[in-house]
Write a structure and sequence with these properties.
Strand order of the largest sheet: 2-1-3-4-5
Largest sheet: 5 strands, mixed
Strand content: 15-25%
Shape: globular
Helix content: 10-25%
Number of strands: 8
Distance between the termini: 91 Å
Order of helices and strands: HEEEEEHEEE
Structural class: alpha+beta
Number of helices: 2
Radius of gyration: 19 Å
Length: about 170
């Protein structure tokens, strides 16, 4: 009986530690759909882009790109790229900077994963800005006034070169 009690206490302690570590790891991490759409971040309930903000565009049930919108592409139970479709092949990914953290998904075959509703209910986030690279999720280097280099895609290892040709002024 004593061994069983000790085992239960250890399981409880390790699950609390794992939960705290997961919440800390997610604080500030951003969510990106498989099509590259930014879906908000795990942050303070008062942060505008936080999925923990029920009045924000990414945390409300009405936001077009909210994982909590039951009729949306990323929040429905039927969307192929939805966080709430238990058989979604391409659920949203979670990143902290360039580091892949896991999937935002109810699909049990996707690992590592967290579920949106349970995470928002069980974690207290304090970060007010997402841990992203540069603006709009890109790591941009201004080479000169007409050239930029950016990281893109799920692997976050590619790059995109764009040249903005300016007309010659006589």
């Amino acid at each position: 009986m004593r061994a069983v009690s000790l085992a239960l206490v250890l399981v409880f302690l390790f699950s609390e530690v794992a939960s705290a570590t997961t919440c800390e790891l997610l604080d500030g991490a951003y969510v990106e759909a498989s099509d590259g759409t930014y879906l908000g971040f795990f942050g303070s309930a008062s942060a505008l882009e936080s999925i923990a903000n029920p009045a924000g565009i990414y945390g409300s049930s009405a936001g077009v790109n909210s994982v909590f919108n039951p009729a949306g592409l990323y929040g429905s139970t039927a969307g192929v790229n939805s966080a709430n479709n238990s058989s979604a092949v391409n659920p949203p990914s979670i990143y902290s900077g360039l580091t892949f953290v896991g999937y935002l998904s109810t699909n049990s075959t996707k690992t590592p994963k967290v579920e949106a509703q349970a995470t928002v209910e069980n974690c207290t986030f304090t970060t007010t800005e997402p841990k992203r690279i540069g603006g709009e999720g890109f790591f941009a280097l201004g080479l000169d006034s007409s050239t930029t280099v950016s990281f893109f895609g799920n692997s976050k290892t590619g790059f995109n070169l764009r040249w903005n040709l300016l007309p010659l002024v006589p």
